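User: Hey, my collaborator sent me this sequence without any context and asked if I could get a structure. I don't really work with proteins. Can you help?
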Amino acid sequence: MQKGKDTTPHIGIYGRRNNGKSTLINTLAGQEIAIVSEVAGTTTDPVKKSFEITGFGPVVLIDTAGSDDTGTLGEKRTARTLQTLKTVDLAILVITENSFGEPEKMLVSEFRKLDLPYIIVHNKSDLEKLSDTTRVLIEKFAGTGVIEFSSTSGYYPEEIISAIRSAIPESARISRGLIGDLLSYGDIVLLITPIDVQAPAGRLILPQVQSIRDILDNDCVAVVLKEKEVDAFLRKTGIKPGLAITDSQIFVKADASVPPEVPLTSFSIVLARHKGDFELYLNGTPKISELSDGDRILILESCTHHVSCDDIGRVKIPRWISNFTGKKLEFDVVGGLAEWPRPVTDYALVIQCGGCVITRRQLINRIRQAADAGVPVTNYGMAIAWVQGIYKRAVAPFTRSSAGDTDYL
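Assistant: No problem. I've predicted the 3D structure and written it out in structure-token form, which is a compact way to encode the shape of the chain:
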């Protein structure tokens, strides 16, 4: 499911209570995977459902609480629903009984604010058909048509599937290559992968697996070894790799072992270009040297995991930056896609992980909050390279111009 999290389009289902959002999900899935009830408000929190839509492909559907929920708990549920807008690639707004009022207009406004593609479905059309008046109102306000649908009609919703296929950006469905543009046929790529207490038992981490696959897809050779074996391997084989990729935590060791003429970067920096806003990171990383006493730094982890005593995001990066700057700094760490503990303007710097288990849209929406507020943003690997004095070499593989010079400083 890791790969699914990384590349599968996320679709959010929105609308008022009892509009048939869960029923629509069950119809798209061709099976009962969401609880359906005539009682309004059955779905109280966003729930993810992973499956394959026939004729489209694998997706993650997010079933949300009604946008018209009331009371103190209702307001919290609505807030949770709106939070999901930053994590989806497409929104489906479900309406019934020709109702298109403030709850729907609020959602459409939020879709537009986030530049989020959306389609509108008039559900339960077997009970009440979409009127011309409502159609004109929606087309005027939302600038889009309306699809009539009924889960009891007995036909597969081809029109909805077609609309999903047209509305979801191709970039959300097709994973771009990680490093293929850096490689030539038959190149040998050295992947330096420490096996320490933080390494998952019995497997490699996702960026390492993705890199191996991308290397093979480009008809190149992947050599995977631990940092302790690099010197002996290069000496005994005489091989000169076309590229070396290391875990950011052992940048100094890798920099010393890999010959200077061999391009060297890290898995985190590879992901920074693949998923993040690389130019934003390039501009934000040098701000580390401008930090002052009392500055607060936000560290964003995309996954949630057990915290070890030497955790990269919660322990090592804060220690390395504090030692490098010599300043007394404050650090907040947020895991998964949780809300930030403070207003973004409270931070002097935001450091985002590679984001291997979330979609590109989720990551971009996350760091956009800082960028829009003028807060510098960097990436785990780029920040580590900066404080360890090998930033120029670490980003060079992705910033060289056609003349072979670097153009990022």
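In plain terms: Residues 1-6, 34-44, 401-409 have pLDDT under 50 and may be disordered. You can pass these tokens on to your collaborator as they are.
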